[in-house]
Design goal:
Two copies of one chain form a homodimer.
Chain A: H1 3-31, H2 36-56, H3 66-84, H4 86-90, H5 97-108, H6 124-151, H7 172-200, H8 205-216, H9 234-247, H10 251-260, H11 269-291, H12 297-312, H13 327-339, H14 352-370, E1 378-380, E2 383-385, H15 387-413, H16 418-429, H17 450-464, H18 468-472, H19 476-479
Antiparallel strand pairs in A: 1-2
Helix pairs in contact in A: 1-2, 1-3, 1-6, 3-5, 5-6, 5-17, 6-7, 6-8, 7-8, 7-9, 7-10, 9-12, 11-12, 11-13, 12-13, 14-15, 15-16, 15-17, 16-17
The complex binds potassium ion (2 copies).
One potassium ion binds near residues 315 and 316 of chain B.
Chain lengths: ~475, ~475
Amino acid sequence: MNLPVILGVLGRLLVLYAGAMCIPMILAIALGEWSITSFLLSVLITGIPGFLLMKRFKTPEMKMGVREAFAVVAGAWLLASCTGALPYWFAQVVPTYMDALFETVSGLTTTGASVINDVEILPQSLLLWRSLTHWLGGMGIIVLFIVLLPKAGMGSVLLFNAEVPGPTNDRMMPRIRDIAISLWKIYLVFTALCALLLWSAGMTFLDAVNHAFSTIATGGFSTKNNNIMYYDSLAIEMIITFFMILSGVNFAIYLSLWRKRTMKVFRNTELLVYLALIAAAALVIAGSLWFRSGNSPEDAFRHALFQAASLLSTTGYASADFAQWPSMTKIILFLFMFIGGSVGSVSGGLKISRFILLAKAAWAELKRGIHPRVVSSIKLDGKVIDGESLNRVGIFFFLYVMTFTIASIAMAGTGLESFDAMSAAAAALGNVGPGFGAVGPTTTYAGISLGGKAVLTLCMLLGRLEFFTLLMIFRPEFWRRRKIW
Amino acid sequence: MNLPVILGVLGRLLVLYAGAMCIPMILAIALGEWSITSFLLSVLITGIPGFLLMKRFKTPEMKMGVREAFAVVAGAWLLASCTGALPYWFAQVVPTYMDALFETVSGLTTTGASVINDVEILPQSLLLWRSLTHWLGGMGIIVLFIVLLPKAGMGSVLLFNAEVPGPTNDRMMPRIRDIAISLWKIYLVFTALCALLLWSAGMTFLDAVNHAFSTIATGGFSTKNNNIMYYDSLAIEMIITFFMILSGVNFAIYLSLWRKRTMKVFRNTELLVYLALIAAAALVIAGSLWFRSGNSPEDAFRHALFQAASLLSTTGYASADFAQWPSMTKIILFLFMFIGGSVGSVSGGLKISRFILLAKAAWAELKRGIHPRVVSSIKLDGKVIDGESLNRVGIFFFLYVMTFTIASIAMAGTGLESFDAMSAAAAALGNVGPGFGAVGPTTTYAGISLGGKAVLTLCMLLGRLEFFTLLMIFRPEFWRRRKIW
Ligand SMILES: [K+]
Ligand SMILES: [K+]
């Protein structure tokens, strides 16, 4: 393990992170909010060590192996979580540091589960920091999964359908920087568009920016206690629905569109299934709300579509209290928490591609039961998926379900009712945010015990980093000094 | 597809099945019960077509391929379910034929979910038939999975850890008959022992026989409305606990013990994990009942052990109303419905071996993340598991979870609450029987809509035949006339 490289990179990231913290600080100064000192302290505590690390471990030529990359990713998430919690803690808007950490991890992982019962009394600067953690975390995830991991040979951990104009072996770093910058631009354009539209639809400018950050990152934090229900505006819901759906798509598709300017990039199985799932669920749920719960057909479809998009993109916004809906719609939304959006997107969950692959593998297996000698290969968008990648998808599915189960048992142990406990675990692991019942969209996680919050915090991180990154660092081999490869 | 062979075998099975129906008929005659005519009609309707088929399609030398074997298995389950429902229907103890079918499939698949609210008013002959379906179904499954499927080259669909003294290529049929007869003997000895012990512990002779059938098959039908709670007897609970645990073990282990007479057969990872899971769950649940629900420590452990053994072996007996227990214990028992017992046993669920393999694969995968060039093979009890088998286990896990999800949505659609719906689907798919809430151990499935009963019936069959058998016959290739292999 090349420690100097790791520390140098982490130092640089801390400085950048402190720079990001300056944005809400400047807002606090502009609005004259009392939270200025909280931010100032946080910026200093984050920035100074970062600056010192950066100076001490200058690394002009980066020599990062797979392990160094893992260490940087794990370290960055750890540091960003711990320092990002400082503004909440210093401002004393949460009772304990664990609560502040929960809120920050929930932000950075784009989960959007909150422990703050009344967010409307928070200073605007803290609200902005809250949304900003979503936005930064979301961008970090896209860069990690589209740019860094494939470079580190971990591309098959996820599966890209769209052709990523990825780095070749020579001149690696410049190309990586290129791609990352293109992704940033796309992300920025989406956010700006979303903010402008929300502003023009009647939100205040700051609310529009906050909700744009939250929407594009599939986060779910709102500046209102009643979430999107507060606005009760069809226009706002439609804008948010559109951008939630947009954010659940593989950003490599946008990248290809950006570079190649051809509509062919949309010929993507995962994208098709993603849109079909939202449409199908919206229709079924709307039917259920119309016939069972007596909503008007317009209202039923409006909220059904919003909630389907919100849960499948794992944003977790609520335009209605879906925890009060008929149990069938609840189980569909519960399932959506597990499925999630596309690989290479900001959304959480298991990701649709993995379900497509497993379904195809199951079908092929049935076929083989009858024609044992026919070897059929699994293809996705014309690409053959090798057995090892397929195995990895199956293993990931298993790990995910088992972690969900263990977390559910733990959450039930803290006193939640069975289904509520399961929904809390699923919502944390899938980076969705709200669950059902005691952790439903009209409540917060404030009432959960500290132990329960710790479990959910771990789930959010495990889900966000797709297990391997986080689990890897617990293995003794990871820490051995010398490596052969 | 060789139709004559299939029809000939099915005819022979129908005659045997009609013979089994004569047992409760004889009891009805002996006790002078009014259900005699119901049984007589059923025996005739089952036996006569069977006899005619048998005579018409005499097959001295059986030429069964994989497809013929699948067709026989599917046909046998279908016919046994439809004709087995006749006694209930003729006796008019259920409102519709669908209910009778549900009760029979529940019996044959060793699920033990009942639609009869008051079983204590049933004639003894019908109660015996009910338990007998468990016993016959359980034996059928053991023979299918230990003897027939491995012969048909489908051995890797499941996984045997214990060395099955399996058939070699020459003189196949005599050896198969040998093994099947040995298994029958073991099964019979267990049942007789269980019945004798229960009788001596205070049950009436008939109740003891019924409960022995039900226990050894991990079925769960009782002759009492309050199930095992009715007896409130520590002795009876301990006897049943012992035999439930016994029945969740791979019968290939008993077979090896029977033939080789060495204790080495117990050195089996799955067996170890199976016992460890029961012990661990019993302790955790007992702790929860003691500290949270205020039971005495003795009572807490007594019921915790019984329920852990009952749910992991997927018997589904209840010595207490576990649906009223703390939510954490409920989720543990819910998880047990998915895990199930050992492969090659009578129990349902996904089976422990599959979990062990998936866990090992996940661990190996983590290892490979750090040492990408190290190829480590997955072993179970010293045997290397090839990638293809591993893949199949992952696919089975996926299919199981997805079927559970879809069935949960369907059950919620019939009006059940979310967790109740999920537990009904899990209990049917895992061949457990009772779930939680509206389908808990103190209630029956009588109140479920006919559509819901149909869904659960299908789930019971899918779970029992482990998908492939049942799904296979829906594929067009299956029905094509000529096959090359
Ligand atoms: K979210
Ligand atoms: K059962």
